[in-house]
Amino acid sequence: MVQVNDNFLKLKAGYLFPEIGRRVSAFCKANPDAAVIKLGIGDVTEPLPPAIAEAIHKAVDEMSNRETFRGYGPEQGYDFLRAAIAENDFRSRGCDVADDEIFVSDGSKCDTGNILDIFGTDNVVAITDPVYPVYVDTNVMSGRTGEADATGRYAGLVYIPVTAENDFTPALPDQKVDLIYLCFPNNPTGTVASKETLKQWVDYAKANDSIILFDAAYEAFITDPEIPHSIYEIEGARDVAIEFRSFSKNAGFTGTRCAFTVVPKGLSGKTSTGESTLIHPIWNRRHCTKFNGVSYPIQRGAEAAYSEAGKAQIGELVSFYLENARLLREGLEAAGITVYGGVNAPYVWLKTPGGLSSWDFFDRLLNRGHLVGTPGSGFGAAGEGYFRLSAFNSRANVEEAVERFAKSLG
Ligand code: MLT
Description:
Strand content: 5-15%
Bound molecules: D-malate
Number of strands: 15
Order of helices and strands: HEHHEHEHEEHEEEEEHHHEEHEEEH
Radius of gyration: 21 Å
Number of helices: 11
CATH architecture of the largest domain: 3-Layer(aba) Sandwich
Distance between the termini: 55 Å
CATH topology of the largest domain: Aspartate Aminotransferase, domain 2
Number of domains: 2
């Protein structure tokens, strides 16, 4: 018989969101009349901004004509999109990022997992706890961990707690680590990192020859002008960081699929024999071998996100979800719940009431309020006793959810 990759058998449970989906399906089957409101997975609900939809339609028309039809595009993304990204997301903010440092892809989930292909398996990997589960699971799959303990923590990974006790600020590890995942604005806690915090990490990475994998998928939700949108706003970050960005949450692309990774051309690692080598050509090779590019119409849609109309419409979308976050935050606080995040991020992170475990609170909300959220422990051991609500929903559902939430507590 064919041997399977045993690393997959180390994975503790199903991926968090399918697991929630299974529980919700079972509940709905048993309670067919319950109008369940889902604030679990951070999936957008509002339609594509008109400027983007229009650009996609136009590109589909081009593809329907012999004269303007296109076959394979460049795997790294069309020049028009790479240039629009580099200019609007980085250079206009004073970040030195060249067009050919942008690699267009179909999602940050894929990119943050795929990037591991190009790094040796002996690297010591640090993650914050709680954390977006993809970082952990993809490290397990690629054989960078041992088995999980009873709390779900895998041997070999360095866990950095981010909880209310340390104001959700990850402390530098007291050992040398090679790869560091940072996500700000943070999923799941909805908290942000100051320039000073990111500078400490960049300095740590420089001193230890580490690489920071910086997931900025939620940067569009930053409202505080003091908070950096990109790691490249921090001096020296080009030498130590790869950044991941996505059109999913700001432009509504969760079903449309478009994202990108920034790999600075000067970023280097070392070979197994200790020679320095550049990361950019290795990632380029990986990307071009395993990926055939995002479709032309979708890249035209993403480009339209940077038009004047696109920017304005995206701004409205982001404000809409942030207003949902505010309603959730204030509604929960009024119900006596301790709440974090939700100001510069579309996630509200709360302390479960009465010391309930995260999954017990999940069951209570589902059974009493027909509400779905995400148990904090699903994001890691340090998330136990916390719970996440996503602000991605219609206004009517969010308002209804706040009412039901308060009623579920008693
Ligand atoms: C989440 O709910 O954490 C996100 O939607 C997951 C994702 O973006 O893949």
